[in-house]
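Slide 14.
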Amino acid sequence: MENDDQGPKEADDVGGHFIQTPIACESGRALARVPLDSRHQGWLELPHGGVLMSMVLELAHRGLLPPLLGQENYPIRTSFRLGGPSLLLSDEIEVGVERQEREIRGWIRKQDERSPTLTARIQSGIADEPAWMAEVDRIATTVEKAGREMKDRGIPLPYTRNCFVCGSERKQPGLERRFYCVETAGLQVAFTFMGLDPEDQEKLSVYRLPEGQIHPGILAAILDETLGWAGFIHTRQGGVTVRLESTLFRSIEPGEKMLCFGACTGTRGKSPAHLFWHATGGILPIGEEDFSPVMLASGQWLAMPKLTEEMKTHLTPAEWTRRWFDSENP
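Slide 15: predicted structure.
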């Protein structure tokens, strides 16, 4: 089903939107112009990749008919690829989605640039499993068996001051995640909890869809960060997301408690300047009889020596940062 022709739609006030500018809709297509600023911050002066993914998901839901995130559409499979012209927080971007025969295609490009920085494929109601699903199922089983020791034995990872996901001193709303590492069954796992107490539930609930459920983009952003940390734990290198594929199995309601986890599953390249890592992970519900995953993901990251050196200076607390860079076993 395609859109009826529509004019620009003003952003409504329900939930915390990532797109707060008018959305131009026409048959099967939606566009928005978004000025990037500190609300979208990731590392230093760069937008967070998970925020960009959130914009595409939100536009596909709010700008197309039928909406992407209706209950009848799950599971929803996404594939994001990042590259092309780099973006800064001072840039204005075009966010676009277009419904094609069996999928939605999305993109983000800098104003006046032809090449996109991010491209996306979104498919709904897909039952077959991608090849990486067996690997992430194995890791999820290990995490489930670890149980309480995830919280009791977790070693804290450092964080930044202004990042949308982990920033501790943001003036704008953010998720304020804290990430940890635990070694269990010979596997190094990066993880973070979500919604364990009312204060944390409130942070997550700021970002909702118009229908009231938690914005799935924040799950993608947290998973992106978790898998990035999983690669850092293994390589001691900072990296940027090249690709993130995920399957979202259902909607998430305010008040749910979840565990987000990830592990590095392989590297390619010997020097930091030519190093890639692969990581898989997911999000599991906590405190329910049904432990079926909420979301599973797999991706690839490119190590960046410049980023690694910046991390040594800009991550906090300084003693945690030194511990991770100075020792193979913090």
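Speaker note: The longest strand covers residues 258-268.
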